[in-house]
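We modelled the chain as a single entity of 63 amino acids. Its sequence is:
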Amino acid sequence: MLSAHQRWAYAGAGVVTLVLLAAGLPSGVATAAEGPDLSRFYHQQIKWGTCKGDAMPADLQCG
């Protein structure tokens, strides 16, 4: 059985660990709407096709 000192030490270490973990979690107050709008980046579509020009290799693709 653990002594009283060891029980308090383990309990204190557990509390410190939980506090540090909670400090690293993102807060529920911040929302995605407050951040930069990256939808243009994530929703972009590139149409690939052959490159124009006489000196271009046949397997080269341009977007």
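As a brief sanity check on the tokenised model: The radius of gyration is 28 Å. The longest strand covers residues 49-50.
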